[in-house]
Amino acid sequence: MRISVVQMNPGADKEANIAQARRLIGEAVEADRPDIVSLPEVWDSLGGDRTVRNANAEVLPAQGSNEPGGPAYEFLRETARAVRVHVHGGSIIEKGEEKLFNTTVVFDPEGHEIARYRKMHLFDIVAPDGTGYRESNTYGAGDEVVTYEANGTKVGCAICYDLRFPDLFWKLREQGAEVIFLPSAFTLATGKDHWEVMIRSRAIETQCWFAAPATWGKHLEGKGEPRFTYGHSMIVDPWGHVTAKVSDGTGWATARIDHKVSERVRRDMPVLQHRKRV
């Protein structure tokens, strides 16, 4: 199975973001013919103020209903149908009753939604550069561990800040995940020191492949203040080797998921059998 991770530089203009995603997915599919193509976290709307985020948020149709959704949702569904691949839709902004949600939706090659995951861990921190983030002011937290099957492979869902909470990834491994997607908008200040080392650590711990599509570059917040995300989208194998990576800028990277590698690593070091809950 081949997986492509797409790296974007989104902003607050939703229509422009969809156009950028369409172009990059098209180029990745034409060049590399992946079985799954994936987008970053909040690729549909990054930056702007709360009014912009609320305007860009979408009410998602009931799962399994096949009812129409908003522009980002329908773009993902129609892309899956058009290019006949699984589309792991990074995450888009979902409109809830009281708060927004940072939500992954996944479509199979027929355009059926097969998974939906709401980000569990909310980014309420002060970064090393002094910039404050408080996602919980705007977003609600999910409470469900989510996996799905694509071409016979069990896939787990996580988003960005989830990376710092290993228990989620152990749950995904226990539920049979062999590949874990981690769409992200990692800040430059934290990403330069933590992004790769933490992804490789989670891959080694869980003996799963990690596919981490990310946003890159500058965007503007509500009062015009610049923010920067780290990018460096990558795919990592269960031994912790980086098998594909995107440089600075927009683009994509593709790698083949070799199930024999997973089988060998898990056979020779059976950590799931050895694990003690303390």
Task: Describe what you observe in this structure.
The chain is globular. Strand 10, helix 4 and strand 11 form a beta-alpha-beta unit. The strands form 4 sheets. Strands 1, 2, 3, 4, 5, 6 and 17 form a 7-stranded mixed β-sheet that branches. It has a 6-stranded mixed β-sheet with strand order 9-10-11-12-15-16, covered by helices on one side. A two-stranded antiparallel sheet has the order 7-8. With 278 residues, the chain is of the alpha+beta class. It has 7 helices and 17 strands. The chain has one domain: Nitrilase/N-carbamoyl-D-aminoacid amidohydrolase, CATH 3.60.110.
What tags apply to this protein structure?
single chain; 278 residues; alpha+beta; Nitrilase/N-carbamoyl-D-aminoacid amidohydrolase; six-stranded mixed beta sheet; 7 helices; 17 strands; 29% helix
Task: Lay out the secondary structure.
Layout lengths: L1 E6 L6 H19 L3 E3 L11 H7 L14 H13 L2 E3 L3 E4 L4 E8 L5 E6 L5 E3 L5 E3 L12 E4 L2 E5 L8 H9 L4 E3 L6 H19 L2 E4 L3 E5 L5 E5 L3 E3 L5 E4 L5 E6 L2 H10 L2 H4 L4
Parallel strand pairs: 1-2, 2-3, 10-11, 11-12
Antiparallel strand pairs: 1-17, 3-5, 4-5, 5-6, 7-8, 9-10, 12-15, 13-14, 15-16
